[in-house]
Every structure is written in structure tokens, then in C-alpha cells.
Amino acid sequence: MSKEFLHDRERALEEVFFAEQDKALLRRLKEADEKKSKKEALAAASGITDDAVLEKLVGFGVDAATVAALSLAPLVLVAWADGEVDARERAAVLSAAAEVGVEEHGQGRQLLERWLANRPPPHLITAWTDYIRAISPGLNEVDKKQLKSDLLDRAHKVAGAAGGLLGIGSRTSSVEKEMLARLEKAFHA
């Protein structure tokens, strides 16, 4: 074998190696650019400017089209509090979604459906709390109280949708009550 042949093979292997490295770098750059675009669109739709909060929300699949569904995340968390989502709890969450304008066939509804079918990670409560804290400075006191009241009323409806035995006893379990307390606490921080 000639030195020239070996040199050509070496160069060909280097080109393949660097072509793969370039593809990986381009893929990472594209993903970072897409994530940045999603965060910018979410910021514009929600009014949130905190990059860490936007990062968390994008990580949960929230974007400009699904931000309305995020406002209903607490209802999903209440529905899952006892470890499963009852059909009546699911119906209560989806009814609340319709009340606040989440389109039946839209991306927000799809996100809610996914959260109802597969238990969202426990840190969704943290992301939602961060969301509430991020939007609160832009609200006057009347609007904050209304937001809190509306949300907690809907959450109590979900908690009461299932439970009790033949209509006797508390329809809200202790774990649901704990989740309701956590949701209320988010408004006081």
C-alpha cells in the first residue's frame, strides 16, 4: 500500500468524523433556536419576562398556543392528587377548560388531555406557582383576587367531582385538600 493511499483514507475518515460533528452541532443549534423562539412567543402571549420561568414552562410543553391550558394545571393537579383521575374529575377539568375558552380541538386542549391521561411530573406545581408569581405584578388587586377566586372555585369543583360514598361524607379527599391549600398558598407569596 502506498503512503498516498493511506493518507487519502485518513483524510476521508477525518471528513466523515467532522461531517458528523457538524451535523450534531447544527442539530443542537437548531434546537436551541427553536427553544428560544418558543420562549419569545410564550413571553409575548403571557407577559412573563423571567427567563427561568419561561424555560420551565417550555419544558412542560407550554407555548403561546397552550398558555391558557397552563392556567388550568392546578385543576389537573387536584384531579391527580389521589393518584388517579376519575371520569367525573376529567369531565370537570374539561368543562372548566371550555369555560375559559380552551378550544376543543386546539393545542391547549391536547395538552390538558395529555396531562389527564398521564400524570404530569410533580414539579408542575412549581412551574404553575412560578407562572402565577410572574403574572401577578401585572395585575391590580381586584384582578388578582378574581383570578384566585375563579381558580380555587374551579379546583374545588374538580375535587368535589368524585369521592364520598353514595353521596355521603366528604367528597374531597385529604390529599386533594392538601393540594388545594398549596394552590391557595401560591397566591400569597
Automatic annotation (TrEMBL):
It comes from the Bacteria. SUPFAM superfamilies: TerB-like. InterPro entries: TerB-like (IPR029024). This is HPt domain-containing protein. It comes from Craurococcus roseus.
